[in-house]
Automatic annotation (TrEMBL), chain A:
<dbReference type="InterPro" id="IPR000644">
    <property type="entry name" value="CBS_dom"/>
</dbReference>
<feature type="domain" description="CBS">
    <location>
        <begin position="235"/>
        <end position="292"/>
    </location>
</feature>
<dbReference type="InterPro" id="IPR051257">
    <property type="entry name" value="Diverse_CBS-Domain"/>
</dbReference>
<feature type="domain" description="CBS">
    <location>
        <begin position="155"/>
        <end position="227"/>
    </location>
</feature>
<dbReference type="InterPro" id="IPR018490">
    <property type="entry name" value="cNMP-bd_dom_sf"/>
</dbReference>
<dbReference type="InterPro" id="IPR014710">
    <property type="entry name" value="RmlC-like_jellyroll"/>
</dbReference>
<dbReference type="InterPro" id="IPR000595">
    <property type="entry name" value="cNMP-bd_dom"/>
</dbReference>
<dbReference type="Pfam" id="PF00571">
    <property type="entry name" value="CBS"/>
</dbReference>
<dbReference type="InterPro" id="IPR046342">
    <property type="entry name" value="CBS_dom_sf"/>
</dbReference>
TrEMBL record, chain B:
<dbReference type="GO" id="GO:0003676">
    <property type="term" value="F:nucleic acid binding"/>
</dbReference>
<dbReference type="InterPro" id="IPR012337">
    <property type="entry name" value="RNaseH-like_sf"/>
</dbReference>
<dbReference type="Pfam" id="PF00929">
    <property type="entry name" value="RNase_T"/>
</dbReference>
<dbReference type="InterPro" id="IPR013520">
    <property type="entry name" value="Ribonucl_H"/>
</dbReference>
<keyword id="KW-0269">Exonuclease</keyword>
<protein>
    <submittedName>
        <fullName>DNA polymerase III subunit epsilon</fullName>
    </submittedName>
</protein>
<dbReference type="GO" id="GO:0006259">
    <property type="term" value="P:DNA metabolic process"/>
</dbReference>
<keyword id="KW-0378">Hydrolase</keyword>
<dbReference type="GO" id="GO:0008408">
    <property type="term" value="F:3'-5' exonuclease activity"/>
</dbReference>
Length: 633, 240
């Protein structure tokens, strides 16, 4: 190889998208390079000038501007420009200026075309905005078995079933015969109106009523000294949680975690086709967040729970390392967080006695959205039954809230700086009062007040009367979409935190061209993105809390232009995942994980994708302003 | 043929000299080289086709030393085209000294298998024809090429060159400020190729290789033009 080709090639091959090219294609690029020099301050590309080559910055730096003169991007060594114009066969869309003395390697269009044709990754990289992020996110989804694999793959045998009118002895011998530790209970399903009615091969209708396990036989029959002739129906729990066969292994795992169960019947439509065991999933993908949740429920003191903190972190790191998606990690960490709260509430109730009136322990923020990461405040509240009498009952609930909140703090979930905690009298109120709060926020949307209350609009029950939280969700879903002023105020608040433009060398590049040394990915990316998604979700009357689920509903409601919800979903996945990866790295380096990231710790590919995610967020914010304008009075 | 040289000194014009040589030269390649002409003195540099040329030699004296390799790359003020450039290793008439081999990183076997310069002279002249030659340090390429052509073709070959080192000396070595600095004992800036390049933000190229150096020279010339001149500068302000 000629020396100058080696010289060009050595440089080009260090930077994406060239770093993934085959040797042959790299040689072809290096062999075709042409060179041009531009003094600082000179124009490299005029708007509407013809574009015949891809520009690669060998040294120096350039700025790309929008039509309106606004800074679009700042690029340095190893960056490329002109790819979009080449792909579209159009004149230069954005003018480019050298801001330092700059040497450009020009890669002629025919070579560029060949690279696009022969290397899919290269083509994805230079393709229009969105698809690069898309391909990265999709790749990580493909690489992740747990989310791609349907749970039916784990089925190894047909479910063992028995009529619930049979005796426990019959059930026990059937289980022994089949060497299983659980059996599904059925009763004739004629005339039953239930999701759990199915027809067997002979066309008979059956109703799936429950499941009996070894443990039930031990606890409810043997330990109680009950007769082996006891009918199964009398020891049945009377309810059953199931999963559809085409749901993912991950979803099955989360369902078991959420409900603290070890076995999950799998249905094909309504027909039971198998039972998946927690151990099956553990065997499938070693993942100790399952053990962790079991562990949480077996701890009998706050101190013992607090000692699990390193395990929580280790489980987080393992999930990140195994290439789990942000949605899976967020789901698993939220399960851990919820289990911890549940256990703390159980311990407090054991200490204080049963609650004087029914109540719901409710969470907000990331736990409500099921997207919890590792560094997170506690955001919680209590909804009390309307028969609540402060004089008689509040001592109990105040103390319960204190114990849970202190416990969470001890377990690595620090107190909420904004005071969104059930310990705060304001956020420990009867259902009617909560309804009044939300009605007021929606009816009289003062942006300043909303700024502090928007956190409450992500809410979910963790313990107690889930229906209280559901009633609030319903109220929000119905009222919010009918109140353009509320949506406009919420939209305005969602524009408060803007993303940066991208990165330049070791700096975060702000929209106005300023530099910063680090970026808080949560504050500048994930949180504002969640704000945008929340406005659209409330706008379509969605009851979903999770960002991805909200996007699905926004998409089905057709509230955003085609493709937009996909882009938002890729951006959310990517931003969340980068934050989690960096937090996992901090933990591995024995540092306290946080949300601030130094640009020098961001890989080249991450930079490109982050920039794109920021762009998607920025566009989504602009669209929000247009979609939910402040109504003129 | 000494006449030609005298004519050049007497005549104000390279163009006249080229026209004359095209008539009198017997060697076809030289005839064609001169017939392709040379830009008029007032021609703006931005409109002139250029070729950066670099030789690696066994020493500095064209009468004692020989050319080992030749690199060239066509360019203009807009773009440099390495793919259209050429590179030859040639076999010097005398054996290479160990030092110069080590310096150039050209191996004995490469040189042994290479053609003698006589075999590639015509091709080289064809590449230079119609283009203004740009070199870094004019006391190598022009005298070595002239000596090679005289030895192999028996005719003189002279042409104007732009010397990026001499251009660099204009603002780094000459002028009142530079003289003052020298009086005060301040070391003058280096005008070697790599050092000159770094003043323009040009990257470091690792190879010592005639074609890479030709490309490096072309880049330096583009940078000098961008910083100190305009594309309208007449060639006579630049060449020697």
């Amino acid at each position: 190889m000629e020396a100058e080709i080696r010289e060009f090639r050595d440089h080009i091959s260090r930077y994406p998208p060239f770093d993934g090219l085959s040797d042959d294609l790299l040689d072809e690029v290096a062999g075709a390079v042409e060179i041009a020099y531009f003094k600082a301050g000179t124009t490299i590309a005029e708007r509407d000038g013809s574009v015949e080559a891809l520009s690669y910055i060998r040294s120096g730096a350039v700025e790309v501007y929008r039509h309106n003169g606004q800074l679009y991007n700042r690029l340095g060594e190893g960056d490329i420009f002109g790819q979009l114009d080449l792909l579209r066969n159009r004149p230069a869309r954005f003018p480019v200026q050298a801001i330092e003395d700059t040497l450009i390697y020009l890669i002629p269009k025919p070579v560029f075309d060949r690279l696009c044709a022969e290397d899919d990754d290269f083509a994805d990289f230079v393709e229009l905005s969105g698809s690069r992020l898309k391909s990265t996110v999709e790749q990580s989804l493909r690489n992740n078995d747990m989310i791609a694999t349907p749970v039916r793959r784990l089925i190894s045998r047909l479910p063992v079933m028995i009529e619930e009118s049979a005796s426990v002895q019959e059930a026990a011998s059937l289980m022994t015969e089949n060497d299983v530790s659980s059996v599904l209970l059925l009763k004739p399903g004629d005339g039953e109106d239930s999701d759990h009615v199915f027809a067997d091969t002979e066309g008979r209708q059956w109703l799936l009523t429950g499941m009996i396990t070894d443990k039930d036989l031990r606890q409810r029959i043997v330990a109680e000294g009950a007769s082996p002739q006891t009918p199964l129906s009398s020891i049945s729990h009377g309810w059953i949680i199931t999963i559809q066969s085409n749901e993912s292994v991950n979803e099955a795992m989360l369902t078991m975690l959420r409900n603290n169960i070890q076995r999950l019947p799998i249905l094909h439509r309504r027909r039971p086709v198998g039972v998946v065991y927690l151990s099956d999933i553990v065997r499938y993908e070693t993942n100790n967040s399952v053990y962790l949740v079991n562990n949480i429920f077996s701890r009998t003191s706050v101190k013992a729970l607090a000692r699990l903190t390193p395990e929580v972190r280790a489980s987080f790191v393992r999930l990140v390392d195994e290439g789990a998606t942000s949605r899976m990690i967020g789901g698993a960490m939220s399960s851990v967080g919820r289990s911890l709260i549940r256990r703390l509430v159980e311990l407090a109730e054991a200490d204080l006695g049963p609650p004087p009136v029914p109540y719901c322990f409710m969470v907000h923020g990331s736990l409500a959205r099921n997207d919890q990461s590792i560094t997170t405040d506690q955001d919680n509240a209590m909804v009390l039954h309307d028969s609540f009498d402060p004089k008689r009952h509040d001592d109990y609930f105040r103390e319960l809230a204190r114990q849970v909140s202190d416990g969470l703090n001890a377990c690595g979930y620090p107190y909420c700086k904004g005071g969104v905690m059930a310990t705060n009298d304001q956020w420990r109120q009867p259902l009617a009062r909560w309804k009044q709060y939300f009605s007021d926020w929606i009816a009289k949307p003062d942006p300043q007040r909303l700024l502090h209350s928007s956190i409450f609009f992500d809410l979910d029950a963790v313990h107690g009367e889930a229906r209280f939280a559901e009633e609030l969700q319903d109220l929000i879903a119905i009222r919010a979409k009918a109140s353009p002023r509320f949506l406009a105020a919420l939209a305005r608040n969602a524009l408060g935190r803007t993303p940066p433009l991208g990165f330049f060398r070791t700096f975060v590049l702000e929209q106005d061209g300023r530099h910063n040394n680090s970026i808080n990915l949560k504050r500048r990316g994930i949180a504002p993105l969640n704000d945008v998604i929340r406005v659209h979700a409330l706008g379509v009357g969605s009851r979903a809390q999770n960002g991805f689920e909200r996007l699905d509903e926004i998409s089905s409601a057709g509230a955003l232009p085609a493709g937009q919800t996909d882009k938002l979903s890729y951006a959310l996945e990517f931003l969340s995942l980068v934050r989690m990866r960096h937090q996992a790295q901090e933990i591995k380096d024995d540092h306290e994980p946080h949300n601030a990231i130094q640009p020098e710790r961001i890989s080249d590919t991450e930079r490109h994708n982050l920039k794109e995610a920021f762009q998607i967020l920025s566009n989504a914010q602009s669209f929000l302003r247009f979609r939910y304008p402040s109504p003129s009075r | 043929m000494t006449l030609g040289t005298h004519q050049r000194q007497a005549s104000p014009s390279w163009a006249d000299y080229f026209t004359g040589q095209a008539q009198v030269c017997r060697t076809l390649a030289l005839k064609a080289f001169y017939a392709a002409g040379v830009p008029a003195e007032e021609r703006p540099i931005g409109k002139v086709p250029l070729v950066a040329l670099d030789f690696e030699t066994t020493g500095l004296n064209p009468r004692e030393h020989a050319i080992v390799s030749i690199g060239l790359v066509p360019f203009d003020l807009r773009v440099i085209r390495p793919a259209a450039g050429r590179y030859w290793v040639v076999k010097p008439p005398r054996t290479l000294t160990e030092e110069s081999i080590a310096f150039h990183r050209i191996t004995h076997s490469e040189v042994e298998q290479a053609p003698p310069i006589a075999a590639i002279l015509d091709e080289l002249l064809a590449e230079l024809a119609g283009r203004l030659v740009v070199v870094h340090y004019r006391n190598i390429e022009r005298p070595f090429l002239e000596a090679a052509i005289l030895a192999n073709r028996g005719e003189r070959c002279l042409f104007p060159v732009i010397d990026t080192m001499a251009l660099e000396a204009r603002w780094e070595r000459q002028g009142l400020l530079q003289r003052l600095k020298r009086l005060l004992g301040i070391q003058a800036a280096s005008i070697r190729l790599a050092d000159s390049r770094s003043r323009y933000g040009l990257p470091h190229y690792s190879s010592h290789h005639a074609k890479v150096d030709a490309i490096a020279t072309a880049e330096l010339f583009q940078a000098q033009m961008a910083r100190h001149f305009t594309p309208d500068t007449p060639v006579s302000d630049l060449w020697a």
